[in-house]
Amino acid sequence: MALRPETSSELLIDGKLVPGSRGTFDVVNPATEEVIGQAADAGADDLDAAIGAARRAFDETDWSRDHAFRAKCLRQLRDALLGHAEEFRALTTEEVGAPAFLTSGPQFEGPVKDLGYFADLAENYEWTRDLGKAEPMGLPNVREVRFEGAGVVGAITPWNFPHQINFAKIGPALAAGCTVVLKPAPDTPWAAALVGKVIAEETDFPAGVVNVITSSDHEIGAKMVTDPRVDIVSFTGSTATGKKVMESAAGTLTKVFLELGGKSAFIVLDDADLAGACSMAAFNVVTHAGQGCAITTRLLVPREKYDEAITATRDAMAGLKADDPSKPGTICGPLISAVQRDRVEGYIKLAREEGGKVEIGGGRPEGKDKGFFVEPTLISGLDNSARVAQEEIFGPVLVIIPHDGDEDAIRIANDSPYGLSGMVYGTDEERINKVVNGVRTGTMGVNGGIWYAADVPFGGYKQSGIGREMGVAGFEEYLESKAVARPA
Ligand code: NAD
User: What pTM does this model have?
Assistant: First the structure.
């Protein structure tokens, strides 16, 4: 089966691949600005049908109780997708602008393989926990707590790592026994729609268990949040939209799970290998053109080594040019759209207005008159109160800030509305641990350590979100517990 649609990709509703009621919308390659195809444009009626199907599949079938069958379907999906890996990888580079090397990791193969981890959880989780005997009000009782899928999940996702984020939601939700309506971002509809096609044509998932709704209209996401048939809204996106989601969900007291923005700090201590740390910081921020919520975008270096650190980071960035993402060596591809490129360029302009110095980059790469590229950019001369140090830019832009020792570095790292991730470089274990403990974030790397894996809970403190994705904690987000007691 060829994945690439001849005309338009379709929606998956109640087990069937169907067109969108509002026709189609264009899918654009951000590296060339060419229209590469169309996606089905769902309207409110399609959303209504998808939620209805998910509700019926949850309420009227055995899906939520048959743990072994769910594990089988998830493994089947993983294997079917891996059978199409080459085509998916090429399409991900075309649609998302993802550098090719990332598609064998978090931009496709990694999260697909992670479905196996969630299948194992469906099979092996302790679904009933014996709490033993107790005597409430003097009466002997035996008690247990049962865990069950929480119901219909409305999954709303962004464009930057579409496969990773889609599977980090549908994997644990389905393993837990929920049914799902997945609504991807309008910029990357195929990543979700073509998974829907594989589900419909190559797996035994019952009708309605997974529904995929692509739409050019953000309102479809907003409508999903207020629909009383949805039990959990699992949202990844910007903090601004996350706040709207939480506000709208209050009307029905729907549980919200939020993975939002970040402005993570890369802390270099004075006993660290400065050049090694600075080149890692440069590599991090240009990867996928900085379009990662957990990317470290503030580089905090000892004040006495500020100039040396600027030189080392600038030199490292000079070797990391923005380029065609399908070329094997490319680390920094394009931004997803003209809107995002304009936004990033607006922040670089703002940095100059705030008194910052652009050490390298700051514009569009030479010779690239097509594609939404921005050069890897280093900004110096600002402190942490600058807007470019406080706000999420979501581009290949690094702000380098001096610190006056370990405590000051922790203070600066925490002086942010966000708390998603971070990195510390140093040699003294005690000092490193103090920093790890002091920074209020959901994940921390040490000396280049990579925490990303299926069994690692990921999520944010403060305005970076509520809840954890991946790992057992991510799976448990999709469960309800029911305590049961009977006289002993
Ligand atoms: P966005 O908030 O604009 O959109 C995300 C999704 O929400 C899209 O599917 C969109 O259609 C939908 N949406 C828009 N308005 C809505 C509304 N009112 N109600 C419900 N849904 C609505 O984000 P984006 O620009 O697509 O993605 C970039 C942002 O995502 C960045 O801020 C980034 O940090 C964040 N992000 C966070 C994580 C994380 O795990 N913490 C991961 C990736 C991206």
Answer: 0.98
